Each structure stands twice: as C-alpha cells, then as structure tokens.
Amino acid sequence: MDEIFSILEIEVKKYQVPVVDLIKVQTGSAFKILVATILSARTNDRTTAEVSSRLFNFVDCADDFDKFSQDEIADLIYPVGFYKNKAQYLKQLPRALNTNFNGIIPRTIDELITLPGVGRKTANLVLAQAFEIPAICVDVHVHRILNRIDYIRTKTPFETEMRLRKKLPKKYWLRVNTIFVMFGQYLCRPISPKCEICPISHLCARRSVKK
C-alpha cells in the first residue's frame, strides 16, 4: 500500500480535484463542505460544483435555509440527483443543528449521521475534509478498487470501511477517498478500466475485471 499511494499521489495530480476538496480549499467552511457532500450523492462533480456555487450565493450558513421554502431550495439545487429529497434535508438542517448541536457542525460520526441526509459516507467525508479528523470515507470507487487490487475482500462499502479501519495505516485515512475517487473516475473505471496504461497494474490482481 505504501507503493500504491506513492504512485497514485503523483498520478492523480493530472486529474481534476473532487468538488468537496475544492470547496474545502476555497471556503474552509465545515457547513459548506457538509452541504456540498449532501448534494454530491448520486451526482457527478461538475453538476455538484455548479449547483454548490449557485446555492452559496444565497446560503452562507444553515439558518439561511429558513429564508426559503422547500420548493425554492429544490429550484436552487436542481439538477443534482434526488434534488427534491435533498431539498427536504436542507430545509430540515437548521432545526437539527440548532436543536441538538447549538448550531455547530458536530465532529463525530455518531452525531453527524443524526443530521438529515447524512449517512456514514457523508459523515466520514465531513470529518476528514472539514476537520481533518482521521476517517475513512468509502464510496463506490474506494470499495471497488481496493477489492480489485485484492487489498481487501468485502461485499459492501460498510464492510470495506470496517476492514480498512483495521488494515489501512492511519496515515492514509484522510487521503484514501480523494485519491481513489479520482483514480476511479478517470482510469480505474467500473467497466473497461484502462489497465494497459495503469501505473499500478503490476500491483493489481484485477479481481472481477473481465475486459
């Protein structure tokens, strides 16, 4: 894994930075990182970036969502995936934060997943990106690639997270999602990965790669 990370740290510099990483650099706001992460579910980075930029022209903190109806929020975040559901989550966010956390974004997984629209993947990403607290965010790319290279053998993203917590050196926790998401989007794709130009092909078992 040391060799894989050293290679991929160089490789992914060729690629576009994921939108949540970009928002972290641009704003440093835990609130905006949380919102962008909620918006990014089932949505490509380009759409998430465009919608986040538009939304943050009107919303700077959670309480700003109280200024808009749920339908108005839905209009602001269209066309992200499941935008009507996400509008409901964002409309509920101020009350959830103010009632349970004094308006402050919490810093533990157990607390974050009580917020509307926040699951373990989102919670882990917020911890890592907003607070730089070691956390392992497992999305489809992380799950697929780490099984593909035969570093782990798991059936679900949750199993992958739990296995990585035991096996992956902690020094990689903050970067594992960013690196493997970019690698998975641009080269190690779900179907027809570009194995012939892959810089870690000599370290990969190619499990479940058929073409």
Please give a structural write-up.
The protein has 211 residues and is mainly alpha-helical. It has two domains: 2-15 and 136-203, Orthogonal Bundle (Endonuclease Iii, domain 2), CATH 1.10.1670; 19-131, Endonuclease III, domain 1. It contains eleven helices and no strands. It has helices at residues 2-11, 19-27, 30-40, 45-55, 70-77, 83-101, 109-112, 120-131, 140-148, 157-167, 173-186. α3 packs across α4, α3 runs antiparallel to α8 and α5 crosses α6 (83-101). It is globular and about 55 Å long. The relative contact order is 0.13.
Secondary-structure blueprint:
Elements lengths: L1 H10 L7 H9 L2 H11 L4 H11 L14 H8 L5 H19 L7 H4 L7 H12 L8 H9 L8 H11 L5 H14 L25
Helix pairs in contact: 2-3, 3-4, 3-8, 5-6, 9-11
Compose a concise summary of this entry:
This protein is mainly alpha-helical and 211 residues long. Helix content is 56%, strand content 0%. The protein folds into two domains: 82 residues, Helix-hairpin-Helix base-excision DNA repair enzymes (C-terminal) (Endonuclease Iii, domain 2, Orthogonal Bundle), CATH 1.10.1670.10; 113 residues, Hypothetical protein, domain 2 (Endonuclease III, domain 1).
